[in-house]
TrEMBL record:
<dbReference type="Pfam" id="PF05096">
    <property type="entry name" value="Glu_cyclase_2"/>
</dbReference>
<dbReference type="GO" id="GO:0016603">
    <property type="term" value="F:glutaminyl-peptide cyclotransferase activity"/>
</dbReference>
<dbReference type="InterPro" id="IPR015943">
    <property type="entry name" value="WD40/YVTN_repeat-like_dom_sf"/>
</dbReference>
<keyword id="KW-0808">Transferase</keyword>
<feature type="signal peptide">
    <location>
        <begin position="1"/>
        <end position="25"/>
    </location>
</feature>
<keyword id="KW-0732">Signal</keyword>
<protein>
    <submittedName>
        <fullName>Glutamine cyclotransferase</fullName>
    </submittedName>
</protein>
<dbReference type="InterPro" id="IPR007788">
    <property type="entry name" value="QCT"/>
</dbReference>
<dbReference type="InterPro" id="IPR011044">
    <property type="entry name" value="Quino_amine_DH_bsu"/>
</dbReference>
Amino acid sequence: MIRRRALSATVVSIAAAALVAGCSAEDGPPADASAAANGPVTDLRVEVVRTLPHDPDAFTQGLEISGDEIFEGTGLVGESWVEARDLDTGTPRVRVDLPAPLFGEGITVDEDSLWQLTWRNGIAIERDRDTLVERRQIPIEGEGWGICRSGDRLVTSDGSDTLTFRDRDTFDPVDTVRVTDHTGGVDRLNELECTDDGAVYANIWTEDTIVRIDPGTGAVTARIDAGQLRASLDIDAGERPADVLNGIAAVPGTDRFLVTGKYWPSMFEVRFVP
């Protein structure tokens, strides 16, 4: 703050202020400039349409609907698997286990392929969509968390506040965007779902929260409170108590989503509403 004193000090004060301003301009914008530029975030909640059964022993890492099937991938060393099952009946069609020491993470369907990430094993696995037989392994740097397909690119998360865009054929990273809201970076981005309107939805690890992201800018445009879902669970339905929210799949042609969590005995068909 500049305090006015005697008239003789006015010129000196103005000069000093100008010098400080000039130095600040050269230093560049503040670190949270991108966050400050974000618009308001819409607060939403979940409206339950129906409740479906879910394997209470599944450590869910990825969930996606493709055609008349739902695909799910799970984690933990020695317990990771990926499965395709009938969307209406829940009847499994095919399931493949991951051998130790692989720790399964997010999954996404891309035409006749299914991509599956691993956590700290340094590989992404491309599988045949129908048989789930492994086609190839691609080396990746860092951790694998969530993945979805958006247009001509794949989008991945690694638990940070950054989304990485990847070539669909080579899996090479081609671009990144930092995810922010009005407070700054939004990290712990976990399971992802890309929707037809171009948005990316992400579970926030350890929270009952889903965020909607504009992948072009990284801005969070909506925050969905899903806390009522966990509160409605029979947390002791399985051998292990229900854990964090994780798993989101858009229902094609609707405004609804399927959501679940790690060791949840239920999966919920929901809308995101004000």
